Each structure stands twice: as C-alpha cells, then as structure tokens.
Amino acid sequence: MMNVKDLGLTALAPLIWGSSYIVTTELLAELTPMWLAALRALPAGVLLLVFARHLPKGIWWAKIAILGALNFSIFWSLMFVAAYRLPGGVAAIMGAVQPLLVVFMAAAVLGSAIRAISVVAALFGLVGVALLILSPGAGFDPIGVIAGIGGAISMGLGSVLTKKWQPPESLLTFTAWQLTAGGLLLLPFAVFFEPALPVLTAQNWLGLIWLGLIGAALTYVLWFRGLTRLEPALVAPLGFLSPLAAIVLGWAILGEALSAIQIIGGGVVLGSVLLAQVAGKGGPARPPLFRGFAPDPKLGSPR
C-alpha cells in the first residue's frame, strides 16, 4: 500500500524546484549556467556535511561519485545546454520525458514490472506539460534536443540507481556527499570554460541561499528519501509538478497571463500524477504489461 506521507513529502521537492525559474531570472540573471549549478550544489553539500560528519566507505566512494555526476553534474549541465539552445517550453518537454524513461529503466535495473497504466500516466503527464508551456512555432535545435533528452536519461538513471544502491549511511550523509561530488565535478568546468564569477550582490546571495539551502539541500533530502522508500515509477511522475508550480508562481508573483489551455494542461498534469500513484497502489491488480529482468535478491521488498 502506498504511503501518503512519503508521497506528500517527496512531492514537496518538485514543487519547490518550480520556484527556480523565478529565482534565477529575477535574482541570478548575471550568473552563467555552470557557475550557478556549482554554487547551488557545492555549498549545499558542504553545509550538510557539517551535520553529517561521516565518510563513505569502500565502494561507496565510487557509487557516490557516479550518483553525484548523474543526479547533479551531468543532469544540470545538459539541461542548461537545452535551456540555452531551446525555447523554455521545448526544453521542459525534453525534461518531462524522464518519468517515461524511468518506467523502462526500473524494469531493466530493478526488475520492476512495466504496467500499461504507468506508461499511460507518463504520456498524459508529457501532454500536460506541453499544454502548460509549449508555445506555437517553438523551434527544435538538434543539439538542444539531444542535450535535453540526455539530461532526462541522466536524472532517470540516477533515480533508479539511488533505489538500487540503498545507502548503508544515513540519508543526510548520502545526500551531502552526492551534492558535494556533483559540485566538485562542475567546478572545473565553471572555472575553465566560463567567464569569471562576478561580484555577488545582495540579491544574488539571496537567490543562492534559496536555491542552495531550500532548492538543493532540503529538497534532495526529501527526494532521495522518497526514492529509498517508494518505487522510482511512483516518484518520477511527481517531477511533473515542477513546471506546474513554475507556471502558478509566475501567475501569482510576476503577474504572467494564465490561458485556458494552460489551466487544462495543469489539470492533465495533476491527473497524470494521480494515475501514476494508482498504478502502483498495492501492486498490480492485473498481470503487468511486461516484466523486467530478475530483481536483485539483496534489494528485498519495496518499502
């Protein structure tokens, strides 16, 4: 039976991520993408390490580096490339492919069943996001499209491996080292391939504090907590709430117009999220569409 509390806490993460657009455009417009990503991940990771104060052991050094790269370094880098080369709506559509990819990745890596209702929910969510933010005449730059899909693959695989590699350490330590590893991997690219970091203003600091403390440290603790307790196919569709939150905040704070099509899209997004949860509630009510590879016996039953 699905845990409503776990779902609710996990859903807070993408809802908060929806504020990143306003914070970035209104408070951090002077910063370049790699600097912004590095300054979001590394300080948040170091701050959490102050409280965790624990070192990974053995093979977990490699696993932390892989997860930090997938969930932060590669994902954020490619999504920034997509955002710069594609209209915002198209870039978001590329990212919204992730829940559909996770359904199939979870089958291959975790042995999860691919249920038809899960695939339908992911497709409906994709349509909902398109209605929310895709404008007429939006262009498709090939490199931007490849980067967007690559970012979705990176985050999707990172989510599935987070579930597979149940950490022996505390969730705080697990999140802290991933953020730190992701930030450290991003830092050389920011230093060598982007202009020097400008002098930060008071509003820059305010934006970085929000994105780092709330938008990274807090949200990823909640997100990884959800991934360790719930199936990835249940967690990934919650990501559809991020563009929905961004649209609502733009309307409420910046006074951006909200069309009837966007309202319909928001309803479709919410419906797809609910449908995805129904798909995993209490196990499949009918034979699954496809069964993946045999599950790892070390994983045990999902919590």
Could you explain the architecture of this structure?
With 303 residues, the chain is an all-alpha fold. 72% of the residues lie in helices and 1% in strands. It has 13 helices and two strands, in the order H-H-H-H-H-H-E-H-H-H-H-H-H-H-E. The protein has a two-stranded antiparallel ribbon. Helix 1 packs antiparallel against helix 10 (202-229), helix 3 (33-52) runs antiparallel to helix 9 and helix 4 runs antiparallel to helix 8. It is globular, with a radius of gyration of 19 Å. The relative contact order is 0.22. Residues 282-303 have low confidence and may be disordered.
Key structural traits:
mainly alpha, 13 helices, 2 strands, 303 residues, disordered C terminus
Concise account of the structure shown:
This protein has helices at 4-17, 20-27, 33-52, 60-85, 88-95, 98-110, 116-133, 142-164, 171-193, 202-229, 232-235, 241-253, 260-280; strands at 113-114, 290-291. It is mostly helical and 303 residues long.
Oligomer: single chain
Give the N-terminus to C-terminus distance in angstroms.
9 Å
The major beta sheet can be summarized as: 2 strands, antiparallel
How are the strands of the largest sheet arranged? 1-2
What gross morphology would you assign? globular
Strand content: under 5%
In the predicted model, the low-confidence regions spanning at least 5 consecutive residues are 282-303
Counting H and I runs of at least 4 residues, what is the number of helices?
A: 13
Strand runs, count: 2
- How confident overall, as mean pLDDT? 80
Radius of gyration: 19 Å
Q: Please trace the helix and strand order, writing H or E for each element.
A: HHHHHHEHHHHHHHE
How much helix, percentage-wise, in residues? Answer: over 70%
| Helix vs. strand class | mainly alpha
